Amino acid sequence: MAVLFAHDGYMGVINEEIYSDTYDNKIIERYKEISQNVIFLVRKKDYKNDTKLKEKTNHIEQSNFSFQGVDNFKTLKGYLGLKTIKEKVNSCVRDAEYIVARIPSDLGFLAIKYAKKYSKPYLIEVVGCPFDSLSNYNTIGKLLAPIYMIYMKKIVKRAPYVLYVSKNFLQKRYKTYGRQINCSNVELEKANGIILQNRLKKIKNTDKKKIVIGTLAAVNVKYKGQQFVIKAIKMLYEAGYEIEYQLVGGGSKDYLKKIAQKEKVSKQVKFLGELPHEKVFEWLSTIDIYIQPSLTEGLPRALIESMSLGCPALGSDSGGIPELLDKSCLFPKRDIRQLVKLIKNFDTEKKLVEAQRNFYASQEYTKNVLDQRRIDFYREFKKQT
Q1: Strand 58-59 vs strand 65-70: parallel, antiparallel, or unpaired?
Q2: pTM to 2 decimals?
Q3: Domains (ranges, CATH) in the chain?
Q4: Distance of alpha carbon 324 from its chain centroid, rounded?
Q5: Which of 117, 157, 297, 344 could form a disulfide with 319 if both were Cys (CB 3.0 to 4.6 A apart)?
Q6: Per-residue b/e over 148-175, b at no fewer than 16 CB within 10 Å?
Q7: Regarding beta strands 58-59 and 17-20, do their DSSP bridges make them parallel or antiparallel, or are they unpaired?
Q8: Count of beta carbons in the 10 Å neighbourhood of residue 125
Q9: With contact defined as beta carbons under 8 Å apart, do 195 and 227 qualify?
Q10: What is the rounded CA–CA span in Å between residue 369 and residue 15?
Q11: Cα dist from 262 to 230, 231, 265, whole Å
Q12: Which DSSP helix (H) or strand (E) runs through 316?
C-alpha cells in the first residue's frame, strides 16, 4: 500500500526518467515517513527530449516512487476529458492507504472527496488562498473566487489533520476543528555564518544607484505582481538609478514583456526562465534586493530562501509576507510609488540591518527544525488512523 499525494503541479518523463518543475526529491522524501511507497497524482507535462529543459527542471530520483499524470484540465481540451480524470482520481484514492491533499488545487479537492467516499485517512496541506488568487486572475476568476473560498473553508474545517504553511494568515481564514500544525514548505540547511559575511561585504561594495533586483515566481500569472516592479523600474530609471530586474520562473513572458516595452525598460528587465532548485540559491546570491510583489501568497518559499542568504528583501502586504519581513520593508500591494520610495530609501545602512535580520529570522525555517515538526505530525496522523 502507498501514500497518495494529490496536487495540481506538474511532472513529466524525458527518456524514461521523471522530471518536474514543481517538485524535487526532498519534497517526495517527506511522505516516506507515512509510507515507503509514494505516489504523486499530478498534471502530466510534455517536457520533450530537450537537453536545455532538463537542465532547468528537477530530476526525480527516488526508489518506491511513481506518479500518475492526468491531462491539464485547466484547458478547454482537458476540461472535456474531466470525466476520465475524475475516474482516475477515484481509482488512485481507492487503491491508496493514505491520502495527502495539497490545496487549493482541483486534484487535491477531488482526492479529499474520494477519500471520504472510501473512508481513507487523509491529511490536508493548506498552502494558499483561492479567493486571493482567483480574484486577481480574470473576470471568470472573480466570479469563482467566493465559491472556491466557501468550499475550501468547509473542507478545512472538517478535516482531521491540517498542515498550514503560514503561522497565522491561513489559520485565520481557513479554521479547522482537527489537529493542526504550521510548517513551511521550505527546505533550508543549517546556517553558515560565512554566507552572511559574504553578503555584508557585497552590500558594502555595491553602488547604491546600481541595483540588481530579483523575483522568483511564475511569469504568466498576474497575481504574482511583477508588473508593478517593472513600472517602478521606469520611475527609478528616470530618477537616475541603474536598475536591472531579473525574473526567474516558468510560463509565457509575453504579458510582462509588453509592459516592459510600454514602459520603455525592456533592456532593464531580464527573463531567466526556470531554474532547478539548487541553482536558485546561486542566483539569489548574485542579486542585491529580492522583491515579493504578490497580490496573494501563503508563505512564499522563495522569499524565505532569499532571507537565508542574507538578501535584503521587500514585499507586498499580502498573505503571509508580513509574517516574514519587517514592517519597514512592506508596501501595500499594487502601490508602485511606495515601492519606489522603499527602494530609494534602501541605503547601505538599511541593507546591512535587513540582511542580518533576514538571515537570523530565516533560521526558524531550517530543515532540522521543520522536519522534526512535520515528522511528529505525520507519525501522529499515521498512528491515529
Answers
A1: unpaired
A2: 0.85
A3: 3-186+366-384 (3.40.50.2000), 193-365 (3.40.50.2000)
A4: 15
A5: 297
A6: bbeebeebbeebebbbbbbeebbbebbe
A7: antiparallel
A8: 20
A9: no
A10: 37
A11: 10, 9, 8
A12: strand 313-316
Q: Which DSSP category does 189 fall into? A: P
Other CB atoms within 10 Å distance of the CB of residue 363: 13
Instruction: Sort residue 249 into left (φ over 0), alpha (ψ -120 to 50) or beta.
Output: left
Report which secondary-structure segment, H or E, holds 70.
strand 65-70
Characterise 310 by phi-psi region: left (phi > 0), alpha (psi -120 to 50), beta (else).
left
Amino acid symbol at 9: G
Q: What is the pLDDT along the chain (385 residues), one digit of tens a residue?
A: 899 999 999 999 888 889 998 899 999 999 999 999 999 999 998 877 666 666 778 889 999 999 999 988 877 666 677 899 999 999 999 999 999 999 999 999 999 999 999 999 999 999 999 998 888 777 888 898 899 999 999 999 999 999 999 999 999 999 999 999 999 988 788 778 899 999 999 999 887 768 999 999 999 989 999 999 999 999 999 999 999 999 999 899 999 999 999 999 999 999 999 888 888 999 999 999 999 999 988 899 999 999 999 999 999 999 999 999 999 999 999 999 999 999 999 999 999 999 999 999 999 999 888 999 999 999 999 998 7
